[in-house]
Amino acid sequence: MSAITSLINRQIRLASRPHGLPTAENWESTTQPVTEPGPGGVLVKTLYLSLDPAMRGWMNEGKSYIPPVEIGAVMRAGGVGRVIASQNPAFAVGDFVNAGLDVQEYCLIPQEQVKRNGMFKIDPRLGLTTWLNVLGMPGMTGYFGLMEVGLPRAGETVVVSGAAGAVGQTVGQIAKIKGCRVVGIAGGKAKCDWVVNELGFDACIDYKGSDVRAGLKEHCPGGVDIYFDNVGGEILDLVLARINRSARIIICGAISQYNNTTPVKGPANYLSLLVNRARMEGIVVFDYADRYHLGVAEMAGYLKAGTMKSREDVVQGFENFPATLLKLFNGENFGKLVLQVADA
Ligand SMILES: NC(=O)c1ccc[n+]([C@@H]2O[C@H](COP(=O)([O-])OP(=O)(O)OC[C@H]3O[C@@H](n4cnc5c(N)ncnc54)[C@H](OP(=O)(O)O)[C@@H]3O)[C@@H](O)[C@H]2O)c1
């Protein structure tokens, strides 16, 4: 038996679809022997998994921008890992990679899936978890969402909710770099202080401890030109009430609605779009996949120059996946939520 085939792969599978917040019953732990990759294939050892609000949507039945995770399937997840066996000339043993690894300790990626899994080599000198944050999917969401839908111009006022989270921190920092006035919205004083004092936002409204309507009035005296919406619900309505003519609203997510057991709450103030000749547009990051390298190059430049920061909240232990995921929905994560599965 080779060193590879003596390994056991722990996996977490979707056992049932949640109603409201996911519970322990929605998950099943399984094990499988690890196998050698076939021709053109690669075997990756998972080091870090990206825990994303979108996972909640993938657990639901129904049509979306990506098929749901099937009952009994290993839960879908992006991650960073290390190649431990390769039959593919593009990847060598020891390479660090970013790929769709799913919630498991080892991921065997057959040749035909290497491209589909979005597998690419990463430079570990920029920090492994940075590749799941500013240089990864959330960072690309913030970058392309803001730049291509938000169309920021220097001097404009940008409001971003979920400001201390993965997408939010990137959006606010890029908007500052592009010369905008940036107002964050986040839960709690510690997060608000961090985005202002460490990331350089102009202000941040604590939606848990203060009145958002009053905060928007105080910190956006000239109105809102761009709103990058990560949360939906009531906060979206409050920002809609303050938008300027030709404002752009980027619908990136609506985390306040993901665990609803009642229908999603849409914006009551939508006629503000009409009055202000404004536009609200949804984005899906995967649509920009063929240009990620351009976003990554720009973000990497800012990180190296010290004009951008990347904060990750790293939780240890593969078995802690189900409980850790819930942190996203009560705001316990501070920065991009990452699960460390193994040491690099
Ligand atoms: N469209 C796309 O392609 C795409 C791609 C990636 C992410 N997204 C979306 O972007 C949003 C942010 O994702 P992320 O990965 O950056 O997550 P994140 O912001 O790092 O983490 C989620 C944060 O949401 C906040 N939150 C939770 N419940 C809330 C509620 N009821 N009201 C207001 N805020 C709440 C919490 O922060 P506080 O402590 O501040 O409450 C929590 O820390 C999500 O909606 C996600 O689905 C979309």
Summarize the structure.
The protein has 344 residues and is α/β, with parallel strands linked by helices. The protein is built from 11 helices and 15 strands. Strands 3, 4, 5, 6, 7, 14 and 15 form a 7-stranded mixed β-sheet that branches.
Protein topology:
Blueprint: E1 8-14, E2 27-33, E3 42-50, H1 54-58, E4 78-86, E5 96-100, E6 106-109, H2 111-116, E7 120-121, H3 137-150, E8 157-161, H4 166-177, E9 181-186, H5 189-197, E10 203-206, H6 212-219, E11 224-229, H7 233-240, E12 243-251, H8 271-275, E13 279-282, H9 292-305, E14 312-316, H10 321-325, H11 327-330, E15 336-340
Parallel strand pairs: 8-9, 8-11, 9-10, 11-12, 12-13, 14-15
Antiparallel strand pairs: 1-2, 3-4, 3-6, 3-15, 4-5, 5-7
The protein binds NADP nicotinamide-adenine-dinucleotide phosphate.
- CATH topology of the largest domain, by name, is Quinone Oxidoreductase, Chain A, domain 1
Category by helix and strand content: alpha/beta
Rg of Cα set: 20 Å
Shape: globular
Mean pLDDT: 96
Q: Quaternary state, please?
A: single chain
> How many domains, as an integer?
2
N-to-C SSE series?
Answer: EEEHEEEHEHEHEHEHEHEHEHEHHE
Main beta sheet strand tally, sense and closure? 7 strands, mixed
Number of separate helices: 11
Bound molecules: NADP nicotinamide-adenine-dinucleotide phosphate
Query: What percent of residues are in strands?
Result: 25-35%
